[in-house]
Amino acid sequence: MRFKVIKRSKISKARLGLLETSHGVVETPCLVPVATQAAIKTLDSEEVKATKSQILIANTFHLHMRPGERTVKLAGGLHKFMNWKGPLMTDSGGFQVFSLGFAKDLGIGKILKGKPEANIKEGQQPKFLKITPEGVYFSSFVDGRKVFLGPRESIKIQESLGADIIFSFDEPTSPVADYEYTNNSLSRTNRWAKACLNSKKSDQALFGIIQGGRYKDLRVESARLTAELPFDGFGIGGEFGSDKNKMMKMLNWVIKELPDEKPRHLLGIGYLEDIPKIIKRGVDTFDCIVPTHYARRGVAFTSFGELNIQKRIFLKDRKPLDKKCSCPVCQNYTRGYISHLFRAKEITAMELLTFHNLYFFNSFVDNIRKEIGRGKF
Predict the structure, then answer these.
(1) Residues 133 and 44 in one domain
(2) Catalytic residue flag (residue 287)
C-alpha cells in the first residue's frame, strides 16, 4: 500500500489523497461502506461498484464465526470469495469487545446520549465476555462455544481473509468508563498493538488504532505512542464522548499528533452532518453503516433531508426520491412505487433504497473532494 497527499486545503485540514493498493486506487477522502459478513446487504458486488463505492470493510469477528477464515482462504481469499475486485479492509474484531460487552450490558453506543446511568470502574467485567491481559473470551453467537480472540489471533485471521488493509486488535472503551478503567484499557491496547506488529507475516497494510476514551491526555498519549510504531496508517476508534462537538475536539487532539504522510481512518462514524466536519479535521477514510442500515428501515437520504418512504403519504407520489440525484433508482422508480414495496414487505424495496443511499453518500463525498480541489473546502 502507498498513500500520497496530492492537495491540502488552505482553509481547513482537509486533504485530497490517493490510497494505492494491489486491488486499485482509492481517492480520498472516502466513505468505506460496511460489508459485515462479506456483503453489502441486499446488493451484489457489481451493484455496490455502481454506487461509486471504492473500498469496503468486512468484519473479522463475524467472518471468524461463519464461515470461518479457513473457508474464505480456500476460496481464494476475501476478494474472490465475495467477487469484489476493488480494495478491502477488515477490522480487527476489537469493536465487538465493546458492542458485545458493556454496550450490550448498558444499551449504549459510541456517543452517549443524555446523562450516564452507570460508571464502569477498573476491575469490572462485561456480562457476556471476559477481557484479560492476553485477549478476550467471547461466547459464539452461532453455537454458544467459547471463542478467544487476542492480537495474534486477530492478525492470523485477517491474514487468512486477505484484505488489503487490516487493523490492530484493541479494546474500545465505553463512554461511561472512568479514568482508571480507560487508562488501564489503553495500556492493554498499546501492548496488543505491538503484539500485532510482531505477529504480522503478510504484506498487508496494518493500521494501528488510537483509543483513550473521552480523556484528552489519554487520547494524546495513545496518538503519540501509536504514531511512533511502524504502522502503515492509523484508525481512530473508541467512544467519542457525550456529544459530537466533543468528538470533533478529540479529532483535533489526535490528528495533530499523527504523521502527515500516513492515512487516517475514522472507525464507525459517518452521518451526513458529520462528514464535512470530520473531513475538515483531516480524516481520509471513514466507515459507517448509516446509508445501508437506514435504507433497510425505509429511510432515504436526499438533498433536502431524510424521507421515511414507508409513510402512506408517499403512495401516490410520482416524483423520484430526489430529482437532483442521478442514480438509476431516481431515474427509473417513483416514491410511490418504493413506498408500496416497503408496505408490502417486498425485499426489492430495501435493495432500491440501499443502492440510492450509498450512491447519494458517495456522491456527497465526491462533491467534497471536488470542493477541496477547487480550494473552497
Answers:
(1) yes
(2) yes
Q: Which amino acid is at 313?
A: I
Least confident window among 77-81, 99-103, 230-234: 99-103
Pairing of strands 15-21, 24-28: antiparallel
Query: What pLDDT was estimated at residue 174?
Result: 84
Owning domain of residue 364? 296-377
Cell of 52: 461509486
What pLDDT is recorded for position 241?
Answer: 58
Split at pLDDT 50, 70, 90, the class of 240 is: low
Q: What is the CATH number of the domain that holds 143?
A: 3.20.20.105
Check whether 117 has a pLDDT greater than 60. no
Residue 295: is its pLDDT beyond 70? yes
Total domains in the chain come to: 2
Q: Active-site residue 143, yes or no?
A: no
147 and 241 assigned to the same domain: yes
Rounded-to-integer distance, Cα 176 and Cα 22, Å = 41
Tell me how far apart the alpha carbons of residues 208 and 166 are, in angstroms, rounded to a whole number.
9
- Whether residue 249 is found in the same domain as residue 376: no
Based on the domain organization, do 167 and 261 belong to the same domain?
Answer: yes
Query: Is residue 25, in this structure, part of any structural domain at all?
Result: no
Beta strand pairing status for 2-8 and 15-21? antiparallel
- Catalytic residue from among 91, 164, 274, 284: 91
| C-alpha span between 356 and 330 (Å, rounded) | 7
| Gap between the Cα atoms of 371 and 365, Å rounded | 10
Structural domain includes residue 249: yes
- Of these residues, 170, 274, 287, 322, which one is catalytic? 287
Count CB-CB contacts under 10 A for residue 228. Answer: 11
Q: What are 138-165's pLDDT values in tens digits?
A: 988 888 889 999 999 999 999 999 999 9
